[in-house]
Fold this sequence. Notes:
The protein is α+β, with helices and mostly antiparallel strands. It is built from 11 helices and 20 strands. Helices cover 29% and strands 31% of the residues.
Amino acid sequence: xxxxxxxxxxxxxxSEKYEKLLKKSDPDTNKMVALYEKAxxxxxxxxxxxxxxxxxxxxxxxxxxxxGNHGYTLRKIPIPPVIYKRIGHSRHDLxxxxxxxxxxxxxxxxxxxxxxYNMWKIVNINKSLAKxxxxxxxxxxxxxxxxxxxxxxxxxxxxRGEVGRGIMKxxxxxxxxxxxxxxxxxKWKKKYFTKNxxxxxxxxxxxxxxxxxxxxxxxxxxxxxDLRVSVQKNQLRKWQVSAIFVKVAKDGQxxxxxxxxxxxxxxxxxxxxxxxxxxxKIEKEVKTFAIKLAKHIASHKKNMADFGFDIGISKxxxxxxxxxxxxxxxxxxxxxxxxxxxxxxxKVFTTPIDYACSFLS
Length: 361
């Protein structure tokens, strides 16, 4: 049966995901699409997948992947009435995206590629949320020196960046010296110093970086961990926590990012026998904190429906916001070899489609 365009949801994919869908050879992408599709079928709707560059201003049609009798194939169809945007955009894309909205299209996750310090400032406006953020400044020679007087450990992060790339750490040793941990040619290295900041550090912060108080993260089997908390709008257009992933750092490392060797677990796996943290208490506090964050940020960034918050838990059990991601359904956390690592993570993929379908006539 041919599906009416009025019942079709458009999904804007990053180019790399689009290419994998095109080749039909990546089991994780196929699983992600299958989860989207299952949610769409539940609402008697269908899906169309395309890239941001496939949209042309003034054009009423688009070439995208639509499911037929023999799987997804490229077809030219009218632009869907509701579009789930899974990728950031630059200011050059704004006229195109605004024109779609002017034509009555529902387009959500209307976010730009963001700078981390700007997001830190947005959250810091709210006093109840601000206390759950580490002390943060733009990294300059002066600000790093100021922070070294206050803290024994600092994180240096690119103001823009993903999967932990470019992050450095400064830590004070027992002899009073400082140690800069940094990556060079994909290998971790150390540089010790006392008064003068290393030239390597000063050269790197010529590009915008943050200097940030290090959160003393809780550990699992001696390895630090943090949480990726998926907060999404559901079919009732209300914020919900769809899932919580736990990212555990590799042995001897401080970065939990999956792209840096981290491993994903469920919260229950980590906390069921934790010596000091209680599963029920942490889960309740993190969910409450994450919903407050989503509501606050969404009041400053309109048309958002999906956040992936990186939240650290201190050894005292206090949640701290580490980073805001604008899409939470990364298959890297939850799908491996075409299978969900945990059934409880299914909602991360189905909830955005439920929300999109709430706008269909």
